[in-house]
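Holo model, GBH. Inputs:
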Amino acid sequence: PSRDANLTSKKLPRSFMWGVSSSAYQIEGAAAADGKGPSIWDLLSHRPPGFVQDNSTGDVVAEHYYLYKQDIRRLKLLGIPAFSPSISWPRIFPFGTGAVNEAAVAHYDDVIQELLFRGITPVLTLFHWDTPLALFNEYGAWSSPRIVDDFFNYAKFVIMRYDKYVPIWFTINEPQYCNWQYSTYPDDGTYWPKYGNWTDDKVGKARRRFLCGHHTLLAHAKVAKWYKEEFKGKGRITFKNSGNYYEARDVNLPNDVLSAKRSVDFSIGWFGGPWTDGDYPPSLKTTLGDILPTFTPSEKALIKGSCDFYAIDAYTAYTAYGSDNDIQCTNDTFNAAWPECAPSSQMGGNQFPLGPSSDPGASWLRSTPAGLRKYLKFITKELFPTVPDIVVSEFGFAEPFESSLTKMEDILWDLRRADYYQGFLDAILQSILYDNVNVTGAWAWSIYDNFEWNSGLSTRFGLQYVNYTDLSRTPKASMFQLKSWFREHAQ
Ligand code: GBH
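Output:
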């Protein structure tokens, strides 16, 4: 498709970092190897039929745990300069806390060494949703403040071991979602052992959700503070925010504007507010009342400024609209999963020309490059002007119906994904050139097809195709699109 001709051979800043990303449970397989403890996802993916759409699990997936050497070599051959995976907490500490599993440490030592040997920069996430099951059984994991110290000890161990090699640490991936299961599923022993005394109405679920979110913030902040003191100037630390960009459908309709604002507050502001301003956004406080936990003054001080820069997993954008009666949240209207309580956040509308839809297994995702450009500007210029720079820590696309294709050439010719990458990368470059936004890095999701949580293996986000029978990997057209884009624009 046509693109802004002015971008031809325009360059990114020399220091711009880029690469591909993924996470431990989604690619490693080897779910019980070398003394690894189970995570909540080992439990969840083995739920009765239907919990994961295609009933797949992360038990084997691409077996990155065993095949990392060829994976890293392939990244080298493809010319990918940085890799952003996550470390598995229950591998290093099978019980979440206590004894270190030396076999897992030796494994990650080797992965890091291999990356360095191939000249690929490791950018590491400490936690990408694979909560040690032992901590869940013990005290309800993220619903308890006890997780803060356990996460701190794990993070400290990993950072101390690899600090020399890692320029960027992401503590937690998308705190908004890492515990979304906790609030969506009942606490009655159906999905996991009963872990608390929660009511299963919407308010009870919301309580769990915001309490878990609260503890992720405190856990992140404790690690970040220690890291900044211990390793001053050596590397940088932040967490990966989720939260889509929401734009009012019609700026002349007050309820549309309000709905967009609330949607932003409840996604981006929920976690971004505390580290930039030291507290949750006012609209969360008024809407949620005592559902929202409060920070003590010392916690506020700990969390404020705890990130060195902003990271967003910026997949897509939405327009928001309101109706006349969606403003007052009550127990009835309260939507625990989307507590902005507008019926409201809805893809499409007239603000973003609709791009292609992605796979039905990722119905939340459309290609919205114009939205990304607005999003980057909005965050750095309007919402959080103190943020020095921003990285796009994940962006990616699920080619529609890819898993039902049978001919290899159709699978590899993923033009809609390639188009997504061109559009999103152009938007990043435009933000830098025309909007004066300091974007300093971008990581494409994902290195190859992987376990897409509740959507299983049949929703594919990979830049490389994984054949789950023979475990071969093959680059798709989108991988070459990504490569040629950076060949033109990176310095
Ligand atoms: C990222 O989240 C994750 O970090 C990554 O692990 C994942 O593989 C990647 O996206 C691709 O999905 O189905 O309505 O319940 C992106 C944000 C959070 C969007 C969870 C989808 C579920 C919405 N995602 N959300 S719904």
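Residues 23, 173-174, 177, 242, 313, 315, 362, 364, 394, 445, 452, 461 surround GBH (CB under 6 Å). The chain has 17 helices and 14 strands.
Archived with the compound record.
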